[in-house]
Amino acid sequence: MKLTQSKHFKAFSEPLIQNNPVSMQMLGICSALAVTVQMKTAIVMALSLTFVLAFSNLSISLMRNIIPRNIRMIVELSVIATLVIIADQVLRAFFYDISKQLSVFVGLIITNCIVMGRAETFALGNSPGLSFLDGLGNGAGYGSVLIFVALLRETLGAGKFLGVGIIPDFLYRAGYENMGFMQLAPAAFIIIGLLVWLQKSLTKS
Amino acid sequence: MSDNFKSVLFALATAVICSLLLTAASSGLKPFQEENIEVDRKKNILKSIGLVEDGRAYTFDAIKSMYAENITSMYVDEEGRIVEADRAAGTVLPIYLFTRDEAIQAYVLPIDSRGLWGKIYGYLALESDGSTVSGFTVYQHSETPGLGGEIEKSWFQKNFKGKRIVDHEGNFVSIGIAKPSVTVAMSEAEKANYVDGISGATLTGRFLSAGLKEILSEYEPVSIRFRSKEMLLKPQEPKAQEDGQ
After folding, report:
1. Helix (H, G, I), strand (E, B) or coil at B195
2. Are the Cβ atoms of A94 and B3 closer than 8 angstroms?
3. Would you give the DSSP letter of residue A4?
4. Cis peptide before B180 (omega within 30 of 0)
5. pLDDT band of B120, cuts 50, 70, 90
6. For residues A147 and A44, what is the distance between their CA atoms, to the nearest angstrom?
7. Of A42-46, B85-89, B140-144, B229-233, which range is least confident?
8. Of B178, B168, B150, B160, nearest to B216 (Cα)?
9. Number of CB pairs < 8 Å for A and B?
C-alpha cells in the first residue's frame, strides 16, 4: 500500500485542506480573527493549538475504553484545560512578550471547538496513533489558515513581515499607504470568507 | 462495583493527575516567569521616562544595566521627603528616581488603579518640575482586548507625554481620560489635563482617571516639593536598591 493511501497518512492530511477545521468546518473562527494581526502571534497560537490538540487527542484516545460514558465530557475538558494551562505557562516563561500580546486567547483554546470536536468525534473511536496524527493534522490545518490570514493582514496592514518592514521607502514617498482596515478584526472575517469561497469553488469541480 | 462509584473514582483519578501536572508545570517554570515579570517591570519604568522605545527589542541584560545606571528605588514619607525605607517613620510610598548628572530628571510613581475587570498596573513618570507628565505605561491589566485593552498600546500612552497634573494657576487637578477625545469635549484650559479616551471603553477610562487622581493626590506632598524646586539634587548616599515594590 502506498504511503499516501494509508490510514495514518489520511488522518493527518485530510484536515489540512479537504476537511480544514477553519475553512471547511467553520470552527475556531473567533481566535482566527483575534490573533492574526501579526505573523508572530499567529505562529505561536498555531503551535500552541497544535500541541494541545495532538496531546488531548492522544490522551483521550488512550483512555477511550475506560472513560465512564456519563462523565466523558468532563474528563475531556479537564485534559484539555490542563494542556492549555501548561502551554500558557510555557509561553509565559519563555515567550513573555508574545504571551502578553496573545493575552486571553491562549487560555481560550479551552473553548476552541476544534479541540473538543476532535476529542468527541475522533479520539473516542480511534487508536492513539491515529488520533495523535489527526490532532497534528487539524492543528496544522488551523495553523495554515491563521498564517495565511496573518500574512495578508501584516503585509497589507502594517507593511511588515514578522515585524520587519518590507515595503520599500520610495513607495511610501510615492504615496503608498498601509491599509489600516487590515489591522481590524473585520478584515480577518473578509479574508476568511474569501478563502472559504475560493476553496469551495475549487473543490466543487 | 457500581457504575456511579466507578465514575467518581475515575473523576478523582483524573483530577489528581491533572493537578499534579499543573503543579509541576507551574512550580518548575516559576523562576523563569518571575524573571520575565521583573525585567518587564523595569522595562516599563524605563519606558515611562522615555529611555526605552516601544517596539524595539532589548536583551534582559541591556534592560538590567540601563535600570541600574539610571533608576534609584526610594520611598516617600507623609511629608513628601524622599527617604530610604528603613529610616522612614510612618507610612511610606515607593518612588523611582531617574537621576543623571547628580540631578533628578524625573520621578516615577507605581500605578495600581481599579479597571473594569481587574486591577491596572503601570507607571506614571513626572518630570522634575513636579507638574508635567513624562510618560505613562501599563504592564498588567485585564481589560477587554480591543476596547479597554488599548490602554497598553503606545497610541494611547504617548498622549500622556507633556500633559500636566496642575491647572494654569499651579493648583493640583490630576490628569484624566477624556470622553471621547480632548478636541471634542474640552475647553482650552482643560486640554492640558486630559488625554484622548478610547471609544468603547468609557468605564476603563473612568476607573483609570479616578485611580490616577487618587495616586497623584497621595504623592502630592512630594510633587509640591518638586514644584518648589526643593528636590532637584540627588538624595544623599543613594544606595541602589535592587528592587522595591
Report:
1. strand
2. no
3. G
4. yes
5. very high
6. 10
7. B85-89
8. B160
9. 55
Residue B143 per-residue DSSP state: P
Q: Which residues pair with B71 in a beta bridge?
A: B98
| Per-residue cell: A157 | 496592514
Residue of B3, B14, B26 with shortest CB distance to A89? B26
- In this complex, which of A78, A92, A185 lies closest to B36 when CB atoms are compared? A92
The residue that leads in pLDDT, B58 or B13, is: B13
- What DSSP character marks residue B174? -
- Determine whether the interchain pair B33/A78 forms a contact, defined as Cβ–Cβ distance below 8 Å: no
**B20-59 pLDDT, tens digit each:** 999 999 999 999 989 988 898 898 899 888 888 776 778 8
Angle, CA of A21, A22 and A24, to the nearest 5°: 70
Does the structure show a pLDDT above 70 at B97? yes
Q: Which residues of A touch B (CB under 8 A)?
A: 34, 66-68, 70-71, 74-75, 78-79, 81-82, 85-86, 89-90, 92-94, 96, 100, 103-105, 185
All three cell numbers of B68, joined, read: 541600574
Pair B170, B82: CB distance under 8 Å:
no
Predicted ipTM beyond 0.90: no
Q: At what angle do helices A39-62 and A128-158 cross, to 10 degrees?
A: 170
The closest alpha carbon to A7, from A138, A131, A140, belongs to A131
pLDDT at position B123, please?
92
Lowest mean pLDDT among A150-154, B124-128, B136-140, B184-188: B184-188
Give mean pLDDT, residues B113-138: 89
Look up cell 498596573; give the residue.
Answer: B121
Instruction: Please give the grid coordinates belonging to residue A101.
Output: 500580546
pLDDT digits (tens, 9 = 90+) for A98-113: 888 786 788 888 888 8
Burial class (CB within 10 angstroms; exposed 0-12, middle 13-18, buried 19+) of A20 = buried
pTM for this model (two decimals): 0.77
In the three-class reduction of DSSP (H, G, I as helix; E, B as strand; rest coil), residue B58 is classed as: coil
B36, A90: Cβ pair inside 8 Å? no
In Å, how far from its chain's centre is CA A23?
11
Number of residues written out for chain B? 245
Q: Give the residue from chain A lying closest to B26, CA to CA.
A: A89
Give contacts of A92 with chain B, Cβ < 8 Å.
29, 33, 36
* Closest residue of chain B to A59, computed from CA coordinates: B14
Choose the mutation target among A96, A162, A164 for the interface with B, i.e. most B CBs under 10 Å. Answer: A96
Decide which of A86 and A184 is more confident: A86
DSSP assigned state of A14? T
